[in-house]
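anyone else get weird line breaks when pasting these?? whatever heres mine. first is seq + tokens for prot A
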Amino acid sequence: MKSALKGFAHREWGPLYTAVRTALVTRRWRAIPMTLAAVCLTGLFQLVQSQDWGYQPVQNIGSVRAEDPVWLALLRTPLSLFVPALDLPVWGALAQILLVFGIAEICLGRWRTLAIAYLATLAGTLYARVGIALGPDSPLGLPASDARVVDTGPSAAVVGLAVYVCWRYRARWTAGLVVLAMVVEVLIKPNLAGKEHLAAILGVLLLIAVVAWRERRQPPPPGSDGGEDPEPGVRPGTRSWKPPITS
């Protein structure tokens, strides 16, 4: 039993653990500069919006609601990734960003991490408008009052990145658990945040489908025998166990 669990853990998390550990051992905090900047920015936004004088400026530059014009929502969405919800403890948002953004930055690179985070957040933002248009009578709909509710902030990006990294590093069971947790969240508390998390996951799953389709269409590299795919983080045609370059 113990050996079976050990084997499962190695298959599920081994490549991901190796990539993250190698980067942190060799580069330490230099491996995640974008993540550290994101944590500091989120902490700064929390500090400022908690002040009487700072709440409205933060809302003006980084809070998105479905009632906002589309152009304004798109303009605010990049910074909305780093504006934590006032009704939740900020340490939770900071821990999520440090862990998930950090792993993603090491495994995917900083620009791809930001792009996927933005895609996930944008999917949630656009869903809110569709859900309100459908109305509360639809299973996918939302009440009109949710148009005035601020979007999820960093959490949609965190969920989307977690699913993408798990897929890329073949941690399929972990990705499934993340999706299941978000479904249970909506079943228990069917609010805007929970449904935006599912929309973020759907957006990332569509991206995964496109990436997988493109990879299948690419010809095998020279010297490849067309066998099994290389281990995650290993470039085709090489034998290196080192993680891919992230900058």
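and prot B, same format (seq, then tokens)
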Amino acid sequence: MAVHEHPHRSPGFHLSFRRNRTGSQIAVSARTGAHAVGAYALASLRLLTGFVFLWAFLDKTFGFGYATASGKGWIDGGSPTKGFLGSVAAGPMQSTFHSWAGDAWADWLFMLGLLGIGVAVMTGVALHLAAVAGTAMMALMWIAEWPPARHLSDGAPSMSTNPFADYHVIYAAALIAVAAAGAGATWGLGRPWALLPIVRDHTWLR
């Protein structure tokens, strides 16, 4: 009788093993799926954020009629910084921004920054540099708009809706997030970029 009982025990043992293995596979599959969804979400955030910068460059250069009126683009002789910096009406750097408005160096630095950040973020390369440059640009623009002010220098309402967290802060946080997560590897050129010898030797170029 004992000899006949062992075959009955063996299938039960294997059945239990298969169940454990299936549960483990499901857990691994769930983690893999969640990781893939996260990667796609970060890649989408990267592309959208990069397009914000790239579109700003294109619109200010060619005057597509959105933020920059047709015929007022950079190629038409317009200044990308004069209108914005010249209209600063609050904050500790108001006079400084007024003195910078329309200067050639300010126009070139601003436009090259928009183009470089936009291209880098959309292609998924040099995200660390783009995050640093973009955060610096957003910080300056935040100071120019100065959300903490409830009134402008002439006493008019500033129309600020939040004393800190405006869209400049959100863009800066998005740039930092996609750089920290290495989001250029999904839907981007992050992997081949990271394999370049100069990038391997200088990780801050990633």
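btw re prot B: The chain is about 65% helix and 0% strand. Residues 1-17 have pLDDT under 50 and may be disordered.
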